[in-house]
Specification:
Elements: E1 25-31, E2 35-36, E3 40-43, E4 50-53, E5 62-64, E6 71-72, E7 78-80, E8 85-98, E9 109-111, E10 116-118, E11 126-127, E12 134-136, E13 144-150
Parallel strand pairs: 1-4
Antiparallel strand pairs: 1-8, 2-7, 3-4, 3-5, 5-8, 6-7, 8-13, 9-10, 9-11, 12-13
Length: 151
Amino acid sequence: MAQTTVTQYGAAAFAGMLDSVNNKNVRSYAAEEAIPVGYPVKLGTNPEKEVLKATAGATTIGFSLQDHVREQSSSGVVQYGVTETVNVLTQGRMWMMTDDAVVAGAKANLKTASGTLTDAAVASGIEAFTQLSVTFITATSAAGLALVEIK
């Protein structure tokens, strides 16, 4: 997709971006399918080497990080292609997309249909993370970017 506008200042943050140089744990895997940046991932067919998009909170092992060399798909999604190396944050702070307003300090749950985070209670289509803990550090007043801590 071609860039059509230029602004003087870039965004302060974007989905999949690390927050500062705090302690973090990043692991590298091969993408078994196209994986959007800032998306939850699970272990793939070869759990030592590959990952897939997580479709349930219980299977999530971490989140794909932005590495500044990703390209946009024809639909505008920034993603890792099949067999590309995916950097997965399993512990630390990163910016993630929410699809509703969230409160700082609340536990994050996974919206399974979109791969976004919410602080809404577990219900149909919303699952808790069981292999890791995700907490909102910043709040949002609507859908948008929030800083989260993964433990």
